[in-house]
Design brief:
It contains ten helices and 20 strands. The strands form four sheets. The chain has a six-stranded mixed beta sheet with strand order 6-7-8-3-9-10, with helices on both faces. It has a five-stranded antiparallel beta sheet with strand order 13-12-11-14-20. It has two domains: about 240 residues, P-loop containing nucleotide triphosphate hydrolases (Rossmann fold); about 120 residues, Beta Barrel (OB fold (Dihydrolipoamide Acetyltransferase, E2P)), CATH 2.40.50. Helix 3 crosses helix 4. About 25% of the residues lie in helices and about 30% in strands. The radius of gyration is 25 Å and the shape is elongated.
Length: about 375
């Protein structure tokens, strides 16, 4: 059956690994399903030891790309190289990877020890070697005392750790994670993602994870590949993706952001409602209609009537509307004559709300940092800055 073939892979290590700069190289990849193109001209390079997340909404192509790398669903066109070796058309059994699925895919009739040992047995390892390796892996995932149990006797988080141990049992060069945490409850997900990242750093294994959870990607990845409609929107570190979005889609998909209709007035200026604002430098022409974004946490509150702001920032008067308590901060709806018909949402710390005595109906002055006002074309997704 298919599952058996996937797990009983004979892993292959290329002697050319030290001669290439990128461990995994994808070039001009396409995947068609009949008339539907799921992946369009995907090119990507992943360094050895990197933890990379494929992030995007459902149907964006991230899982299809992972399956192409694994050989589970071959690409229509394009090439994939791993450690300098072209694996584009290789069968699964000749590819060097371990994989963890969302559904764990553990054998219910085998003990935890036997589940982990399965791939090692099929690789022809000796009994002594297998016993030692299984004990090492159980200790590595903090389940040393669970080896004699069966999968049904473990929690979901424990089962996922066993699936991870089985995937790395044969020391593959590439670890593929297909939404491994999505079936778990929120608290277990947070705990397990830290364990997975710590384990990946300890082993130094090149890892590619598919997720639709932004928080997961931001907290775990060295780099994030944001995908949409079968193309790569942006590749960058979590900080770059969050602070310097390359398209309106990325700005909107990652975290929360305000989107405001604006008009360009200068190389670093624009208008919002009746207010002239300073912004980051952009490449738009004067008079062009744009969408300017700013994240709620980048809005700085001041005493009402204050015009205290940095020289390259803007200050304007607003009125606080509804306030939503979200634990560590308050999300506030802001309106005002200077904003015209536009509405801003700002995240204010509990201390700021207390210090300024903020409540619905309060007057407030807000500061908008120029470098956090990022402009995009009103009718498209490309960034105009730079």
């Amino acid at each position: 059956m298919v599952l058996r073939v996937i797990i009983s892979v004979t892993w292959y290590k290329s002697s050319e690994a030290s001669s290439v700069s990128s461990y995994l190289r994808i070039r001009n990849l396409y995947k068609n399903f009949g008339d539907f193109t799921a992946l369009k001209d995907i090119s990507l390079e992943i360094e050895e030891g990197e933890f990379v997340c494929f992030l995007g909404p459902s149907g964006c192509g991230k899982t299809t790309l992972l399956r192409a790398i694994a050989g589970l669903d071959l690409q229509s066109f394009g090439s994939i190289e791993q450690a300098g070796r072209d694996i584009s058309a290789l069968p699964i059994a000749r590819r060097d990877f371990g994989i963890v699925f969302q559904s764990y895919a553990l054998f219910p009739n085998l003990t935890i020890e036997r589940n982990i040992a399965f791939g090692l047995e099929n690789a022809g390892r000796s009994k002594t070697e297998i016993t030692g390796r299984v004990a090492e892996l159980l200790d590595l995932v903090d389940l040393a005392d669970q080896g004699k149990k069966y999968p049904a006797q473990l929690s979901g988080g424990q089962q996922q750790r066993i699936a991870l141990a089985r995937a790395i049992a044969t020391s593959p060069g590439l670890l593929l994670l297909d939404e491994p945490l999505s079936a778990l409850d929120a608290k277990v997900r947070v705990h397990l993602r830290h364990q997975i990242k710590e384990l990946q750093r300890k082993l130094g294994v090149t890892t590619v994870m598919v997720t639709h959870d932004q928080e997961e990607a931001l907290s775990m990845a060295d780099r994030i590949v944001v995908m949409n409609h079968g193309v790569i929107e942006q590749v960058g570190t979590p900080t770059e993706i969050y602070r310097e979005p390359g398209s309106l889609f990325v700005a909107d998909f990652i975290g929360e952001t305000n989107q405001i209709h604006s008009t360009i007035t200068a190389a670093n200026g624009l208008t919002v409602g009746k207010c002239a604002l300073r912004s980051a430098a952009h490449g738009f022409a004067q008079g062009q209609q744009v969408i300017v974004t700013i994240r709620p946490e980048d809005i700085i509150p001041h005493e009402p009537g204050s015009r205290r702001a940095e020289s390259d920032h803007s200050a304007l008067a607003v009125t606080v509307g509804e306030m939503e308590f979200l634990g560590s901060f308050w999300r506030s709806r802001l309106t005002g004559a200077e904003l015209g018909d536009e509405v801003l949402y700002a995240d204010f710390s509990i201390n700021a709300v207390r210090r300024l005595s903020l409540a619905a109906g309060s007057a407030l002055t807000i500061e908008l940092p120029a470098d956090r006002l990022i402009a995009f074309p009103a009718g498209g997704d490309d960034v105009g800055n730079g």
